[in-house]
Amino acid sequence: MTGKFIVSRFIKDYDNINDKNVREKYGFLSGIIGIIINLILFTIQIVLGLITNSIAIIANAINNLTDVTSSLVTLISFKMANKPADKEHPFGHGRIEYISAFIVSFLILMVGFEFVKSSFERIMHPEPLKFSIITLIIMLIAIPLKLWLSHFNKGLGKLINSSTISATGTDSLNDAIILIGLVFSILISYFLNISIDGYVGMIIAIFILLSGISFLKETLNPLLGEAPDPTLIKKLKNGILSYDNILGVHDIIIHNYGPEKIMASLHAEVPCNISIMKIHDIIDTAEKELSEKLDIFIVIHMDPICNNSAEIISTKNTVTELLKNFPIIKSIHDFRIIGDGKCRKILFDAVVSFDDKISEREKENLKKSVIESIKKAYPCYDAIITIDQDYTQ
């Protein structure tokens, strides 16, 4: 409720999340709130850490400073990512958001490694802590503050589909867990006179490292080209197949140019006996309507197939039955027969999943085995097969 109140007060037209300017304001709001809260916590904790001589509190203070840097990068990245497309970057600058988060990941990892070293030295050479009730109270106040920040950022990240803001929310949750450990360390040191400060500092350092690794993975995957969202693929397939005279869809490839900046290309099977102008109009309409509906840029390639030939239908059914002996093949497409006379050629693409991790040599062996199987059923036909992989799995 509080998060929605803040959003409604500071973002005009906050419901219009598909507007790039509104999305930028969400990123700006997340960054500003993160900077304010984490800067306050850093200032207080670095003073308390120096007063109490606690490496764990100092480590957490520096972690908050890293969070300030992360929020600053979020601000900058959302501003730069919203820049319009230009000659050098025709699909916009959306990937800047991933690159900036990638940089923050390394900053977090550097801090984590540094405090692994500092905490190890404190374990080897423990020093007494100076207990302060004020320190304990401030730590206890900081816990719900970090939990709220986590809830706030996760909500914003989910709302505008921002991996950077969502990851910031996860980082805040980790911070809350770290603070609980700090309180535990302070109480143990005071009541039992046992110094576990170095061990708690080590745990905090590990949390920082894990957070950095999580950030790194979150941003590296889209930069490398991760598998597309299955829900998007389903909507895309169902949308294409809803148009008249589109009989099948395959070879879907998704390109991610930043959050909410996606390009898709695909092949649509259409009847070969329909007017080229008519089917072009259908494909053109599908491209425009689905691009607007799904908020992505779609390019459709037409694959004409013969669906009124008894010979092709019968041969395809037979080949489909033969392919059941090769369970690695998930489906076929672009099935056609070309040539004149008795000895002709059967051509089609056989689709295998990336999950099967098939090598190039295994593809060739599979192709040969399938061709031999078809040759037995149709001695006069030559089979030309392309082993295709599904890029959406």
UniProtKB/TrEMBL annotation:
It is a multi-pass membrane protein. GO terms for molecular function: monoatomic cation transmembrane transporter activity. Keywords: Membrane, Transmembrane, Transmembrane helix, Transport. InterPro entries: Cation_efflux, Cation_efflux_CTD, Cation_efflux_CTD_sf, Cation_efflux_TM, Cation_efflux_TMD_sf, CDF_Transporter. The chain crosses the membrane at residues 26-51, 98-116, 131-152, 173-192, 198-216. One of its GO terms (cellular component) is membrane. Gene3D superfamilies: Cation efflux protein transmembrane domain (1.20.1510.10), Cation efflux protein, cytoplasmic domain (3.30.70.1350). It is found in: Membrane. Coiled coil: none annotated. Residues 228-304 form the Cation efflux protein cytoplasmic domain. Residues 32-224 form the Cation efflux protein transmembrane domain. Belongs to the cation diffusion facilitator (CDF) transporter (TC 2.A.4) family. This is Cation diffusion facilitator family transporter. It comes from Clostridium pasteurianum DSM 525 = ATCC 6013.
